[in-house]
């Protein structure tokens, strides 16, 4: 036996490294389980904030004469969920989160935490009727957007295709639900103000349209049972009321009166729909968590199987060792010395096969992941185009967003198409000095 | 102060989370530094294995009459590098490697370790003249491929654009160098056999072509100084000899005699070129390591800056806190109560701005990364197409590769084009039962 063969015996074997690979996979699944808990908490908090926004709009649009009690009660309810989410945020630890994705995740959490820390200041201005409904809606939308960005990051970083699919379905569903929440707030303000108004009507139309796109992506990536529940939701009684009120809101000519009393029915119809959506969201999150547990159990079983093989000494130079080259030399393994410790049960796959199978499986997973994540591409492009505008034109984020939206409306294009066009010419834009 | 505001004071602030994000970034940079060490060791080992392959071919093609001493000496030299690399492999720890990428990295290392563990068996067969040059070359190529796959994984997982660029340049350079090594082995065997042979000639042409593509990608992603060194390398004296011998090898009609004595000049000319390439590889790796250190230093400076702010109490609700909503509500920050502890130096950016800047920077980095990684896409597509063939047609990896290559040659297409076409129809292929 030569020097290198002796070395080979002293070294960690390929089986040891397979075990390391499995440990990494388990670390990733634990991280995903932790992320699922985070996403669950955010869903509940966002739901409360959406309701708080709707009630704030009812209150403001009525000049402080309606919904004060409901709003105050909602503040208390939201506070409890803020506390819960804050705990989940604090439970995230740097060690458990892969370096680069962790950096993006914590940067998102930083923004969300900043929003939550000034929620009270916003509420005080609302209660003092020192803000209008448009600015208040925008402020809540911004906070919710920061929270959903955490969910987006989670979806974008998941490395297990099945779990990633569910996270993509969840993110899109939550995004659609948020647009439905903005629809509720906008409609509430319109009815409570008692007068149709062109800008708000256009906004409503856009909100209804964009919801549909989100729910299509959700349906593409969620399982059949949730898709069915979502279909059922379109036919319940309350939806008819909602559709009728939508028609009223959109078809009343600008400056013509709207029935102020309908504001409560609108709010209730929308709320019923949003609550039902929240039910689906909760179920989707539960499925996500179940899937994490199931994958974790399977990975732990795999790990034990590998460790058993290691304990049996299968890792040493076995009869199958030369198989590593057999593929390359285009034949079956030659009769190399049949060394001791080489014989595992005939029915099990050899370590050689295992190493190959695992490499292939990881490759297949990474291909599937790319496909799932591609569905997040639209949002990334829009975010990136906003970033370009902010850097080159010294715009605020909201101004950048409005600019893109205006360009899209003027050209009759989708937001993402305008974003793509802008990014394509980005290298030619001059940078204004900061 | 309401309940939520009190909560906000008890919670981790956005500054705390910014610090967490920075810590993740630092963890990522440390991981990259560790990976650079790994990549360095692999480069040296691959270089030794390439030389060992060339000498093995000289030895085998001469029927065991040439190069035995040089080959034995090379075995001892390679062994030292195997030992060094093994130590670096063992120094990789599961904790330091992000979960999903870690799983792929260790799966690659497992395959490489398996190859190294059977190197001795291969050598014994070579020394006994029990293998021919084609099979031996293929076996060494397979081992080297497994080692370079570790470098590929490192390049594909780096989350810092500048470092990622260098890793992509390095991987492509190493890949090109390996093709140059295969060229040396193939040409050595041809000269030593003393007769031109059509199949080997086609193989040589393919190897020369594919090298060029690799070096183009290297030049695209490396810095100017290394690009210049690479250009200079094309004009040194030895290259003229190499080109002359290439011409002899390629233009001698099949079955016509080749000058056996030229085998040593060919080996020497190729070796001179490969050694010069190794010099560039070493420099590229040094640049990579320097860049890791530099980025790590900068990130640590950032971290200290953030910690100083935290110690100064800047994280509490400051005058800029309402800025979170200011963008959304489309105006400057309203005069919210100017709370204590809000005043940081006027010249520094506010925490609010920092949170935004960091989020934007991470986004820009992730866009740049996508662009760099896209250059690794070809290899991924080919690997994936091989995987499909292996699964559907029960082929070995090498047979899958040959099939793709044959398809490409028959259709006059590039390997990656055939791979893409195959992947496009993959969903329609029937799966044979295992």
From TrEMBL, chains A, B:
On the tree of life, the source organism's domain of life is Bacteria
List residues of the NIT domain.
40-295
Q: Name one GO molecular function term.
A: RNA binding
| Family annotation (InterPro entries) | ANTAR, CheY-like_superfamily, Nitrate/nitrite_sensing, Nitrate/nitrite_sensing_bac, WH-like_DNA-bd_sf
User: Which SMART domains does the entry link to?
Assistant: ANTAR
Q: Which residues form the ANTAR domain?
A: 362-423
Its name, as the record gives it, is: ANTAR domain-containing protein
């Amino acid at each position: 036996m030569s020097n290198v063969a002796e070395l080979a015996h002293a070294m960690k074997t390929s089986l040891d490294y397979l075990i390391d690979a499995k440990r990494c996979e388990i670390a990733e699944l634990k991280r995903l389980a932790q992320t699922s808990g985070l996403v669950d908490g955010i869903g509940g908090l966002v739901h409360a904030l959406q309701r708080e926004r709707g009630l704030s709009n009812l209150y403001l649009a009525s000049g402080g004469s309606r919904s004060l009690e409901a709003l105050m009660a909602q503040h208390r309810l939201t506070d409890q969920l803020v506390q819960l989410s804050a705990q989940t945020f604090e439970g995230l630890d740097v060690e458990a989160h892969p370096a680069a994705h962790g950096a993006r995740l914590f940067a998102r959490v930083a923004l969300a935490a900043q929003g939550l820390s000034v929620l009270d200041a916003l509420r005080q201005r609302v209660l003092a009727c020192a803000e209008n409904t448009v600015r208040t809606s925008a402020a809540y939308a911004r906070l919710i957007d920061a929270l959903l960005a955490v969910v987006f990051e989670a979806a974008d970083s998941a490395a297990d295709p099945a779990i990633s699919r569910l996270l993509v379905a969840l993110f899109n569903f939550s995004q659609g639900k948020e647009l439905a929440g903005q629809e509720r707030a906008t409609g509430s303000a319109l009815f409570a103000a008692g007068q149709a108004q062109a800008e708000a009507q256009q906004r409503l139309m856009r909100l209804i349209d964009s919801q549909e796109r989100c729910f299509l992506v959700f349906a593409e990536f969620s399982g059949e049972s949730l898709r069915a529940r979502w279909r059922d939701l379109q036919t319940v009684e309350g939806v008819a009321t909602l559709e009728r009120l939508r028609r009223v809101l959109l078809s009343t000519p600008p400056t013509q009166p709207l029935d102020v009393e309908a504001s409560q029915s609108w709010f209730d119809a929308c709320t019923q729909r949003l609550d039902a959506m929240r039910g689906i969201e909760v179920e989707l999150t539960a499925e996500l968590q179940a899937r994490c547990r199931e994958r974790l159990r399977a990975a732990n079983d795999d790990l034990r199987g590998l460790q058993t093989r290691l304990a049996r000494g299968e890792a040493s130079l076995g009869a199958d060792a030369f198989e590593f080259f057999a593929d390359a030399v285009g034949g079956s393994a030659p009769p190399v010395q049949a060394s001791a410790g080489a014989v595992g049960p005939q029915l099990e796959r050899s370590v050689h096969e295992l190493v190959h199978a695992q490499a292939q499986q990881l490759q297949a997973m990474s291909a599937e992941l790319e496909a799932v994540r591609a569905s997040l591409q639209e949002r990334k492009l829009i975010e990136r185009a906003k970033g370009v505008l902010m850097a080159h034109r010294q715009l605020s984020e909201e101004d950048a967003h409005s600019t893109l939206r205006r360009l899209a409306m003027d050209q009759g294009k989708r937001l993402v198409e305008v974003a793509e066009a802008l990014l394509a010419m980005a290298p030619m834009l001059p940078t204004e000095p900061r």
